[in-house]
Amino acid sequence: MLDIFSLFKTVDIDQIQLRFYFSSVPYTYTCVLIVDQTKDDKMEKHPGIGKTVLAANHQTNYLEQGEGKPLFLLHGSGPGVSAWTNWSKVMPDLAGNFRVIAPDIAGFGFTEFKADSKYDIELWVGHLTGIMDALGIEKASFVGNSFGGALSIGLALFAPQRVDKLVLLGTPAGEFVQTPGLRSAWEYEPSMENMEKTMRLFPYNQAIITEEMIRTRYEASARPGAQDALRKLLPKPNAGTRPCAASSNVRSRSPSTRASS
Fold first, then answer.
1. Any idea where the domains of the chain sit in the sequence?
2. Half-sphere exposure (CA, 13 Å, Cβ side) for 14?
3. Among 2, 60, 200, 208, which is most buried by a count of CB atoms within 10 Å?
4. If 0-12 CB within 10 Å is exposed, 13-18 middle and 19+ buried, where does residue 240 land?
């Protein structure tokens, strides 16, 4: 006689589903393990996930379009930041004239974050040159937004032979006023509502903020440990509106000191 399953019970534990089948013949049960990858699959389909390369011992996510002279687009910082959130709308236009590469810098976006690493200008410049080496690029031009602009300057100081041209957007240097927008990046707690509030602190034209933009940036910010990692990369807000010094993580220190330490 064939074994007939007369009863089953399903137990869900996070992403693992245990399904118990109880058999009347010969009074035994079977446990079937079903792994529900819905959450992981959803993240894998995030438009910000592109190609992967190993650079500075970090599995590095990057986007690439077009052909021609290499042009790197370097993102800023903040909750849910990535190359895609900063540059996805302009990459197709630039790709008509350049080989456009937009990486997620170490510790940001969908690139690996290592809790035991010290994230500073040394590591970030080394990571950027590592990406260039892995892609066979000796020299390139760079467009840097905010943090990405500071990284571009760091590269120009420490490895000028790798830089053709620089375009800097809102690049921090020295002391600057700590605006509500800058404070919000550190204080942010992941939710759609908080992401919208944070994003609306920045642009003059509020119409450019779309529901899709809020959703995709929130999804990236809600990855386990993402906001805790971001706080380790940003200066903690001062009380009130006192001037804030640029983070010591992006102050000028020669990457060559890493090799000797």
1. 5-36, 40-260
2. 1
3. 60
4. exposed
Q: Which of 134, 90, 127, 135 is nearest to 109 (CA)?
A: 127
Spatial distance between the Cα atoms of 152 and 252, rounded to a whole number of angstroms: 12
Count CB-CB contacts under 10 A for residue 30. Answer: 12
Q: What is the DSSP letter of 94?
A: H
pLDDT score at 239: 58
> Can you tell me the distance from the alpha carbon of 37 to that of 89, in angstroms, rounded to the nearest whole number?
30
Segment 3-16, tens digit of pLDDT: 333 333 333 333 33
β-sheet bridge partners, residue 71: 100, 141
pLDDT at 233: 67
The continuous run of DSSP H or E covering 143 comes out as: strand 140-145
Q: Does the CA dihedral 141-57-107-231 come out positive or negative?
A: negative
* List of the chain residues with pLDDT < 70: 1-44, 174, 176, 233, 238-261
